[in-house]
Amino acid sequence: MKGRRPMSNSNSRERTIYRSLAGKIQLGFYDNETRFPSAKEIASQYQVSYCPAQRALKMLEQGGLIKLCRGKSTAILDKPYRDYLESPVFKQRAHSLLDVIRTLNLILPDLCLYGMIHGDSRHLSVQPGDRKALSIPGRYLYQQFENSFLALGSRTALSLYYDISSFAESALLDILYSKLGSSKADDLMTDVSAEYDYCVRNSRALPPVRIRQRLEHLSGIFYGIIESYLLEVPGITAPGQREVFSWAPRKGRTRYCDTLAINIVCKINQGVYPVGTLLPSGSALADIYHVSEITMRRTIHLLNQLGVVKTLNGIGTRVISASGPELLYKIRELMMEDHLRGFLEALQLLAVTCEPVIMHSFPYFSQEAVDSIAMAASVPDTKESTTAVLNAVMQAVIRFCPLMTIRDIYRKITLFLSEGNVLRPEVTGPGPVSGWNMISHRIQESCAAKDSALLAGTFRLLSERAFLSTKHALLELGISQAEEVAGETFLISG
C-alpha cells in the first residue's frame, strides 16, 4: 500500500473498518462518483460507536486514499494498490488465502442458507436505490454476501466476514478477472448473483436441502476458479515470512473481570475449585490468567457479589457455592448485555457451521479423539455429558482439521463457549437436555461405526438445542439483544 500503512492495533475496531473500506475502494465500490459513506453511516454499518468510525476515516486520509471535506462528500484520491496480485502483501498472504478460500467453500453455503431461512428479510435484498451504485457485478455479489451475514443478527459472525474480507482485500475479484478476462468474469458474477437472488426469493418456499445444493454448486464454481489460481501462484513459501489469517472477534476494550469471573465459576462447577476450598491467592490467579493483580482483585470482588465465594481477611477466598439457576439473574444484574449476547452468537455460529466442518474434519480425527467423544456421550450425568461432548468434538476439530482457518475460528468459538458454560440452561437448569438419550446413542453409534455424517448431523442437533435453550433463557432474563440474533426453530433438516 505504497508504504503508508497506518500503524495501529491490528485487532482494533478502527483498523478492521479501515481495512474493510480500503478493500472496497480497491474493488471499485466508490468509482463512477458513487458517494463515500459518512462516519455516521460507517458506524451504523459496522455496528460500532461514532469514534472508531471517525478514526478509521482519519487512517484512510493519512494513507492517502481519501480526502475528508467538511460539509462536502469525501473525495477518493487513490486505490491502495496499482496491481494487488503483484503486490508483496498478496504474495505474503497467498498460501493462507488458499486455506481461507477452502474454508469459505465449506461453511459459506450453510451460513447464507441460515440467514435466508431464519434471518431478517430486510437485510437480504439489495434496495432498489442501491442497484445503480452496485451495477458492476462484483460489487453486487459482495453486497449479497454481506447482506446474508447482516441477516444473521450476529456481530460475531459479521466480524468474521469483515476480517476475512480485510485479509482477502481485492484478491478474489482480481483473480477472476485475471483467469477469465473482464467479459467472462462479469458474466460469471452476473450468473452467480442471479442464482443467489433466486435462492433468496425461494428460501422459505423450497426444501432447505434443495437451496443448500444450489448454494454449494455456486460456491464450488466461484471458489474453484480462485483455488486453481492460488495453487499456481508463486507466493512466499517460507513459513516465517507468510502472513497468516487470524480472526479477532473481540475488538476494542474488554471487561476482563467479567470474562475471568465466568471462567472461574465454570471451574467451580467442574470441581476444579470445589465448594469449601480456598481459591489460589490473587497473585497466583493473576499469573495463571496473565493479568494484573488489580484486574484479579476486581474479579474476586465480582465473584463475591455473585455469592459463589467469600473473601476472609487473613485467610483467603473460600468457595461457598456452585452456581445454580439463580446465578443467571445475578449475572444479568452485574454484566453487560453485549457480553451475554456474545455467548449466544458463538452458539449460533457453531450450530450453523458444525455439520460441514465435522464432515470435513472427521476423517482426520485420531482414534483417541473419537474414543473421547464416545466416552463423553456415555457419561450418565446429562449436564456433565452435554458439556463434555461439546468440548470433545470442538477440541478434535481444533487439533485435527486440515484447514488452519477452521481451527482458528473454532478456537475462538471455544473461548466464548468455555466462558459461557455457566449461562447455558443445560448446565444451570434443573432439567435434562431435550432428546438427550437419542443424541447420546447416535453419537456413540457414529463413533463406533466411523460414520461422519451421523456424528455431524447429531452434533448439529445438539448445538442447535443448546443455542435455542440459551436464547430462551436470556430472553426470560430480559436480555433484549438476544431477540436480534436470528433463529427461532431448529436449523435445517436433511
Automatic annotation (TrEMBL):
GO terms for molecular function: DNA binding. Keywords: DNA-binding, Transcription, Transcription regulation. The keyword Transcription applies. SUPFAM superfamilies: Winged helix' DNA-binding domain (SSF46785). The keyword Transcription regulation applies. Transmembrane segments: none annotated. This is DNA-binding GntR family transcriptional regulator.
